[in-house]
Task: inverse folding
């Protein structure tokens, strides 16, 4: 076994030990450099810059104004490398490997940055390329790459780098376990999102999951947020009611599902229902008729009641 492969095994074991397959965040960061490809496998290419490491305290030096988004999703560490074709700095590929601390964080960041026109690629749990920009995630690792131009010689190396890194990351390609709480009926494929902070734009909802549903052409968005305790969930419900009383309409109380729930009409969201259930606030809004909204929300509550704490 070569020295490089010994190092690679070491980092994969460390990834597993740090909870790579868990939705839960952890405080440890790992050495990402062993995930980088062997330079000899990239004939005609050399390293023009890096590998350079960045941590939460200096991430802004690399991505400046975008750093808060990455930090919100649990960023732990970044390794950055720029590869050059035959020493030409104008023919290069940038590769960035992020340790996001948890599978939920890597998934959430990936989905939040994915453009609508992206072409899916078979990299990790999910991957895509949009022109000369590529991204993927697997377990707690998020990978970004960008080629200087769209020449085949350059873009093909971008694709190889993305495939290599994702293949080196330990773990399977499963989605975060908390998404299993979402009902399957009418779920629009790959519409699930994890929002790190201010779900629906509300500071009283610290973050949570959103997913889109389509039933006979009518759409709605289902959501839930983990407040951490029943008391905090009840407080968030009260703030939600106050907000709707000021900026929308509280139509009526809902007592058939959840706790302290109500139906609302909002100028931005449309009609919806929100309820408390254990330490969660859960709801739905959109064009679906009330009975369909109530049915989906009830299914979500059942799913949440059987799940462990989300995040």
Result:
């Amino acid at each position: 076994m070569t020295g490089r492969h010994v190092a690679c095994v070491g980092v994969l074991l460390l990834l597993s030990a740090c909870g790579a397959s868990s939705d839960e965040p952890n405080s440890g960061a790992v050495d990402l450099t062993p995930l980088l490809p062997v330079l000899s496998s990239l004939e005609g290419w050399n390293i023009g810059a890096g590998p350079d490491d960045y941590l939460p305290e200096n991430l802004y030096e690399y991505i400046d104004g975008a750093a808060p988004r990455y930090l919100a999703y649990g960023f732990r560490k970044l390794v950055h490398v720029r590869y050059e074709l035959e020493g030409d700095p104008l023919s290069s590929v940038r590769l960035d490997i992020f340790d996001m601390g948890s599978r939920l964080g890597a998934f959430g960041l990936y989905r939040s940055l994915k453009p609508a026109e992206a072409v899916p690629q078979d990299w990790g749990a999910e991957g895509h390329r949009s022109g000369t920009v590529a991204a993927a995630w697997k377990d707690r690792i998020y990978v970004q790459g960008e080629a200087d131009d769209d020449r085949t010689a350059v873009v093909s190396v971008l694709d190889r780098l993305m495939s290599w890194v994702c293949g080196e990351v330990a773990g399977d390609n499963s989605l975060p376990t908390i998404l299993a709480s979402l009902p399957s009926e009418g779920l629009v494929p790959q519409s699930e999102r994890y929002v790190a902070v201010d779900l629906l734009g509300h500071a009283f909802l610290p973050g949570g999951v959103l997913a889109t549903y389509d039933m006979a052409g009518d759409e709605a968005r289902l959501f839930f947020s983990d407040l951490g305790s029943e008391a905090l969930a009840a407080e968030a419900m009260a703030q939600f009611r106050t907000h709707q009383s000021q900026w929308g309409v509280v139509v009526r109380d809902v007592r058939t599902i959840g706790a302290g729930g109500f139906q609302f009409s909002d100028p931005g969201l449309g009609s919806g229902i929100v309820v408390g259930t254990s330490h969660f606030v859960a709801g739905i809004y959109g064009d679906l008729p009330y009975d369909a909204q109530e049915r989906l929300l009830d299914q979500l509550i059942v799913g949440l009641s059987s799940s462990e704490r989300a995040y």
Q: What stands out?
A: The chain is about 30% helix and 30% strand. The chain has two domains: 3-168, 177-305.
